[in-house]
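Support case: 87F complex. Customer-provided input:
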Amino acid sequence: KLGLEVGKEEDFSRWYQQVLTRSDMLDYYDISGCYIIRPWAYHVWQTIQEFFDKKIKTLSVKNCYFPMFVSQRALEQEKDHIEGFAPEVAWVTRAGSSELDEPIAIRPTSETVMYPYFAKWIRSHRDLPLRLNQWCSVVRWEFKNPQPFLRTREFLWQEGHCAYIDKAGADSEARAILAFYKSVYEYLLAVPMIDGVKSEKEKFAGGLYTTTIEGYVPATGRGIQAATSHNLGQSFSKMFNVVVEDPNSPANANGDAAKLNVWQTSWGLSTRTIGVMVMVHGDDKGLVMPPRVSEIQVIIIPTGLTTKHTDKDRALVHNACLDLVSQLTKVDIRADADLRENYTPGFKYNHWELKGVPIRLEIGPKDLEKNSVLSVRRDTFAKASLPLENIEETIANLLETIQSDMLAKATRERDAGVRMVLSWDEFVPALNNKCLCYIPWCNTSECEDAIKERSSRAEVGDEPQDEKAPSMGAKSLCIPFNQPTNPPLVPGETKCIQCGNLATVYGLFGRSY
Ligand SMILES: O=C1CCCN[C@@H]1CCCn1cnc2ccccc2c1=O
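Agent response - structure generated as follows:
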């Protein structure tokens, strides 16, 4: 059966799963929480990889590869870093029929894999900065219900790990990487992001601070953490004894210089990117692919051929399709033709709309006479008859227009889904209206806990209890770098909307993935 049986607004999670499977992006696997990433989606990941890899090379980051296995000793090097995550760690305990002397963990992230070797390799400040990245998969045995691309027990990602002589080096690199993450979403995936810093409660506990980019899913009104870039401070270099001689401190009386723990960053972006793109742009006909990441940007389909037409007519039309494919391919537009004999044009239109191909070109005998072609945009379904004359430039421009229109549309929808909320009684109604909220906030963890408590639906008395999912409370998503100014937050005067203490920041809050 082609097409979708459920609408995006009707049952979002069923729509999401169906659009992924019927567009051949992904298939389910016989182990819960694991999925097969098929070529249509894998092309998106490869495009992201190429784009991001080029960006980090401008910062002299080098790619490498560490083992996926972590010894128990290494993993537990620092108890409090690992304690909250321990239930998610997967262990190898047996090979064949023989038990391993020691269980071996499968990496959930690679700090504890890498940093013992940072300690070994970094002996002098001249070995700094060290900037490594690896493209790999990690395993986190989550028990919350899995969601393809969004929450999976194994996922593909990149993880960057760097070491600097001073805080400034770590600060500036963490921010540069976050800007690259933002451009992955805004330039490639046409999805707008809000960047900021995580609260103390939401940050990576092992580090000094976490910067983040936060997305918004209009269909559910939920925020989604899209990527994070941490300044780890010196906590990991103290844990793993990554030390150099301080080049700025004179050697003391008996000649040995002061020791300095290096400053570190770590940063990660995963295949969650693909899930965000699908959720934001998809519609009731299926995927809507941003042109920059779509494996096929233009699909050419012969049409208007009836039984009245001769084989010669058919051949003429088919050849015109193939000519067009080669013309567009020559100028690096990813074009293809669907010349399958056993499907009608209408069936093909549905098929390629389901896969979200940005432009469809329909060519028939009449078009050949007029030396033109009918174009149909996937994002707006707008039709236009285009002269075959100079078609390469016309299509290239149309793809650019689609890319920027998709970002503009997603940005309008995101802006409509984010509200200034200046009093508590507006907060929960805004959440229930599928909005994220900027709120004047005291930026304390206990207040954050109270906000979560008071905003989970169970707390809100007479709301009709939504059996499907009694809604979760609101979390702080980030403290945006770009603080709202209308109305301005007046230090020493503006109050936190939850606890009434002085507000120090605007926080972005919302229900989230
Ligand atoms: O985000 C990133 C970016 C990439 C490098 N790692 C950092 C922090 C990862 C935090 N984290 C997340 N889940 C975990 C699960 C099990 C064990 C450890 C962890 C863990 O440390």
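Residues 391-416 form the longest helix (26 residues).

Case will auto-close in a few days if no follow-up is received.
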